[in-house]
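Design job #97: recover the sequence.
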């Protein structure tokens, strides 16, 4: 198989799973991964990391993804600044992509109960493909099974691409239990092709988000603890010919949370569905948790195993955290 064909198959496989955008199954915990305006939602300073690992190509390789962010809220000036970094890599195939983004989020009080947060983002990214990690047809000796270290297969691509990226986002929330969000990424549609003679631009990415929290024991009369909530979150995303729906149902019981999540991907008429379960624990100013997802669709479609695990740590610098006493409502800061 020549290099061009191998690379096309690799890119198709990755596009079928995630498209040009990577999605975290813990996006309900760190909504800034999808819409950076949410970095200003809690009106506090925060730090967070996510790590995910998934097998690909019948277990012969792994997809690894790492994400880290930090945000700071400037109360006297009604704005937040945030920085996040994302690294995606398939080590066995020598493919990786990384991007760092800076976000400015401005807070506007629409009324006593409603707040609007808007964001502007600028990012710098790169994609790399290490051909020394790949094996091609002319390197294989079919009589001995030996693999030569050098290929003479011609190729007309670069092994590294750099680009700038622009984005914008907004969300509106009340002080009790409800929010709506909209985000745009790749507004400038940067060219990310490895071939210097081709123009392969990132498609515009559009996403809608909404969340609702229901107090399960508002009058302290039920069998559940007083700080018990049902948190429902959903998002719809579209990028070119790809679309995705993410749904989350999470029960927050004092210092613990448990949830289910469903994810439907559609690419050129092909549907891939995954389901996951999550759990987390709140330790003072930290939340530590994980999400395990598995595929419900046809695994023979791409040869990809969809058993995927993510862990996350979120640290909140909210100065009155010690007064929460087990109240981990998403809207606690506004009550």
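Job complete. Output follows.
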């Amino acid at each position: 198989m020549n290099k061009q064909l191998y690379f096309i198959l690799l890119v198709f496989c990755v596009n079928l799973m995630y498209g040009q955008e990577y999605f975290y199954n813990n996006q309900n915990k760190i909504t800034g991964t999808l819409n950076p305006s949410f970095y200003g939602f809690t009106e506090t300073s925060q730090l967070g990391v996510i790590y995910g690992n998934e097998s690909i190509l019948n277990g012969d390789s792994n997809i690894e993804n790492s994400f880290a962010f930090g945000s700071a809220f400037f109360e006297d000036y009604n704005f937040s600044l945030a920085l996040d970094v994302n690294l995606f890599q398939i080590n066995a195939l020598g493919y990786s992509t990384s991007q760092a983004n800076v976000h400015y989020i401005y807070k506007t009080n629409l009324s006593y109960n409603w707040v609007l947060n808007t964001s502007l983002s600028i990012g710098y990214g790169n994609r790399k493909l290490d051909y020394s990690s790949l094996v091609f047809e002319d390197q294989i000796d079919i009589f001995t099974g030996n693999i030569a270290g050098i290929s003479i297969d011609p190729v007309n691509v670069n092994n590294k691409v750099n680009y700038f990226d622009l984005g914008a986002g907004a969300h509106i929330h009340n002080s009790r239990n409800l929010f709506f969000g909209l985000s745009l990424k790749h507004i400038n549609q940067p060219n990310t092709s490895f071939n210097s003679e081709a123009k392969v631009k990132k498609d515009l990415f559009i996403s809608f988000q909404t969340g609702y929290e229901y107090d399960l024991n508002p009058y302290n009369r039920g069998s559940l603890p007083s700080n018990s909530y049902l948190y429902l979150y959903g998002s719809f995303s579209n990028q070119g010919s790809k679309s995705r729906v993410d749904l989350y149902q999470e029960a927050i019981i004092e210092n613990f949370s448990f949830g289910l999540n469903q994810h439907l991907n559609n690419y050129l008429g092909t549907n891939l569905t995954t389901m996951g379960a999550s759990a987390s624990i709140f330790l003072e100013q930290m939340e530590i948790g994980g999400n395990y997802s598995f595929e419900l669709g046809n695994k023979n479609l791409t040869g990809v195993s969809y058993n995927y695990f993510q862990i996350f740590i979120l640290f909140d610098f909210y100065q009155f955290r010690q007064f929460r006493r087990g109240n981990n409502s998403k809207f606690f800061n506004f009550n």
